Amino acid sequence: MMGLMTGSDAPQTPVPSVRERKRALRRRLRADRAGTSVQERSRQVVGFATGLEQLLSRHPDGPVLAFLPLPEEPPLTEALREHMAHRSLLLPVTQPGRRMLWTPWLDSTGFAPSGPGGLPEAVGPLSEAPQDLGLVLVPALAVDAEGLRLGMGGGFYDAFLQSLAPGTPAAACVFAREVLPPGAVPGEPWDARLHFALTETGLVDLQGSAARAESTGA
């Protein structure tokens, strides 16, 4: 006769790994972004522009590492262009080995489908990130209240953020609904923590159990 099954013998429900949890969260967030209407994105432009102005005012010195948002990402392109005349902006250009170099973003900058999956990247002279950075704007699918970022899965920014000098201000560019409670973003040892979330409804100071929002009035 079969013996009784003990707790240690009972089948265990597999615990999803951190990477599996990240993949599941990415799928959900991407589906949510895909459902955002063109009209809603148009309304968000002013809020992101105001938040960007506040963020740049907090960090008025040094070059800014930016990025060219894709259609489903926060609409920051025009707001960034407005700062070209009086602030040095640089765009990433991906390299083998999950590295990124940087090129100035100018009115004359052209773009070519040279990024992963044919994504557009700036064409221009390349260099390492400057040492005197004033601010880093980081693409993300979400960030939690302690600054833990969920990226796109390519690993480029994971490696780059680890190379930054301690204390370099870095902001996740996300929609307000993508600022999640502490612990909601699965973390791995190499995941950097960011200082701010730039959203359409305000800036959020991160890296604390209670994130503080600074409203843009949007």
UniProtKB/TrEMBL annotation:
Official protein name in the record: 5-formyltetrahydrofolate cyclo-ligase
A Pfam family recorded for this sequence: 5-FTHF_cyc-lig
UniProt binding sites for substrate: 68, 73
GO MF annotation list: 5-formyltetrahydrofolate cyclo-ligase activity; ATP binding; metal ion binding
Enzyme's top EC category: ligase
Keyword terms of this UniProt record: ATP-binding, Magnesium, Metal-binding, Nucleotide-binding
Region of interest: Disordered: 1-21
Enzyme Commission no: 6.3.3.2
Residues noted as binding ATP in the record, renumbered to the chain: 22-26, 149-157
Substrates-to-products reaction catalysed: (6S)-5-formyl-5,6,7,8-tetrahydrofolate + ATP = (6R)-5,10-methenyltetrahydrofolate + ADP + phosphate
Family per record: Belongs to the 5-formyltetrahydrofolate cyclo-ligase family.
Organism annotation: Kocuria palustris PEL
One example of a Gene Ontology biological process annotation: tetrahydrofolate interconversion
Known cofactor(s): Mg(2+)
Family annotation (InterPro entries): FTHF_cligase, FTHF_cligase-like_sf, NagB/RpiA_transferase-like
Keyword Mitochondrion found: no
